[in-house]
Amino acid sequence: MLSATSLVLVAVLNQPRDLEIARLLGWYRIPLRSAPKVVAVDYLAFYQTGAFEEQKWRIQHVAPVRGHELVTRAELLQDEPDHPRAREEYYKVQIGPLEALPQPIPAGKWRRVTFLYTTGEYLLRAETVNDLVVQSEERKTLWAALRERAGQAYQTQEIPEVDLDPAVLAALLGIRER
C-alpha cells in the first residue's frame, strides 16, 4: 500500500497500449539509454501523454514495483522484431496491479514530462504535476534514500556460479596452456 514514505518514480506512458501492457502483463519498459539513475523504487506513477485523448496529460494510476531486469526490446515486444531499437537494452520493471488514485493529477502547465522522483506523501496531496516536485530539505532526504536504494540494488545482484571445465574457461579468457 502506498505510504507517505514510499519512493515513487513518475514514468511516462506514450501510448494507450503501454497502459494495457502494464495492466494486463504487469510490466513497464524504460530504455536503458534514457533511464533514470535509480529504478529500484517502491511505486511507479504513470503520466499519460496527449495520445490518451480525453484522459491526456495526467497521472491517474500507480503500481507497486516488484523488481526489474535488463532485456532487449525484441524480448519485450516480440511482435516488433524488426523495430529499429529491437536490439537495444531496456529495463523491464515488473509491477503489481494498477491502483487508481483517489483523484487524477492533471499536468497543469506541464505537458512534456520525463522521469520524476517523488514520495507517496507528495503524490497523495498533489493537485497538479508541479506539486510532485520535492523541495528544500525534503529533497536531500529523497536523494539520500534513492542513493541508498541504488546501493542496495547493486549489492543484491547475484553473480551466477558457472561450473566450467578449466580448459574451456582458459579458452574463453584467452589463456594458453604452457
Concise structural overview:
With 178 residues, this protein is an alpha+beta fold. 27% of the residues lie in helices and 29% in strands. The protein has one domain (7-172): Hypothetical protein (Archaeosine Trna-guanine Transglycosylase, Chain: A, domain 4, Roll).
Report on the structure:
Residues 156-162 have low confidence and may be disordered. The protein is α+β, with helices and mostly antiparallel strands and 178 residues long. The longest helix has 20 residues, at 136-155. The chain is built from five helices and seven strands. The chain is globular and about 45 Å long. The chain is 27% helix and 29% strand. The N and C termini lie far apart (61 Å). Strands 1, 2, 3, 4, 5, 6 and 7 form a seven-stranded mixed beta sheet that branches. The chain has one domain: Archaeosine Trna-guanine Transglycosylase, Chain: A, domain 4 (Roll), CATH 2.30.130.
